Structure formats: structure tokens, C-alpha cells
Amino acid sequence: MNKKLESVYEEYNRYIYHLCLKLTRNNTEAEDLMQEVWVKVVRYEDSVAEVEHIKAWLTTITMNTFRDRYRKKVRRSKYMINQPETLDVPILDLVPNNDISTEEKIEKEVVTKLVQEKMGQLDAIYQKTLWYFYIDQYSLAEISSLMKVSIGTVKSRLFRAKARLKEMLMADVSVVEAVLPA
């Protein structure tokens, strides 16, 4: 290890450890993460001399390494479940089913229908604004130019429309019973 890398390690070792600890909230995982970070730093030791802001560079490496580990863990846990040494279940049972259930489909359809009915009772300007934003997925700037109003006006219309829609939905007892669990 060259002198520059040693001085970087001496100066930022505690900082990186505390950042890792803050991210993982676990001493063992923080140490593992920190070790991965320093392995990456050593791997790119030629770049250390060219970096202007070492602390920011190390922080970025730490954050990216943490994100990579988290994504890998989520991916792995999605496809694997804790099983005993011998599997008594077919392997296909371990593959996740990402399809929504029939009950969830029906519930979604019912809620969608209820919201659309209430949306139909809103003023046309609020209907249009909600439609553009949530259904057509237009940005605020696009809605602004379509409706020929300022972005601030679009924001306030969205706010008012959502508030009015919520008020109408909560006032309807049948909607509240259908959507909120008892």
C-alpha cells in the first residue's frame, strides 16, 4: 500500500466506520461494509492521487457499496427462503409468484370504480388536472402548458382536487366500509 493510501486510511477510517454503522445499524455488518469499501479503495488506489475531495469520494463509494449490498440481499431474499437442510417442498414452491391474487384484483377494481365515480362528481377543471397528472402521467410543466396556466396554479388545483376527492370519499359511508378495514 502506498503512503497516500495509508494517510487516507488513517484520516478517514473512523469516518467511514461511523458512516457504515449509521447505514447498517449493526456493528458486524458495519465492519463488513467498511471492509468492502476499503477493498474497493485499494483496488482503485491509482485514482486516489487524482481525487480532489477524498471524503466525498469515499462517501460515494460507501453509499454505492451499501446500496449494492442491500439490492443483492433483497434479490436473494426474494428467491430464497429459509429452508432446512433437506427440502420437503417442490422447488417450484420456492419461486415467488408476483401475480396479484384474485381478491386483490377485485378489490383494486372496486376501489378504482369508486374513485372514478367520485372523480366524475368533481368540477371539470379538477377532473382534467387529476387525469393529466395521474392517468396520463404528465409533468406539472406539461399540464401547465396544456391548460395554459402557471405551474403554481396546476399545483394548487391538484392539491384542491385531491382534498375534495378525499373529502367526498370519506363522506360516503359505503366507500369507507369498502376501503377501510373494520
UniProtKB/TrEMBL annotation:
Keyword Transcription regulation assigned: yes
Entries under PANTHER family matching the protein: RNA POLYMERASE ECF-TYPE SIGMA FACTO (PTHR43133), RNA POLYMERASE SIGMA FACTOR SIGV (PTHR43133:SF60)
Taxonomic lineage from the root: Bacteria, Bacillati, Bacillota, Bacilli, Bacillales
InterPro entries reported for this sequence: RNA_pol_sigma-70-like, RNA_pol_sigma-70_dom, RNA_pol_sigma70_r2, RNA_pol_sigma70_r4_t2, RNA_pol_sigma_r2, RNA_pol_sigma_r3/r4-like, WH-like_DNA-bd_sf
Organism of derivation: Lysinibacillus contaminans
NCBIfam families from the UniProt entry: sigma70-ECF
Name this polypeptide is given: RNA polymerase sigma-70 factor
UniProt similarity note: Belongs to the sigma-70 factor family. ECF subfamily.
SUPFAM superfamilies in UniProt: Sigma2 domain of RNA polymerase sigma factors, Sigma3 and sigma4 domains of RNA polymerase sigma factors
CDD domains, per database record: Sigma70_r4
Family annotation (Gene3D superfamilies): 1.10.1740.10, Winged helix-like DNA-binding domain superfamily/Winged helix DNA-binding domain
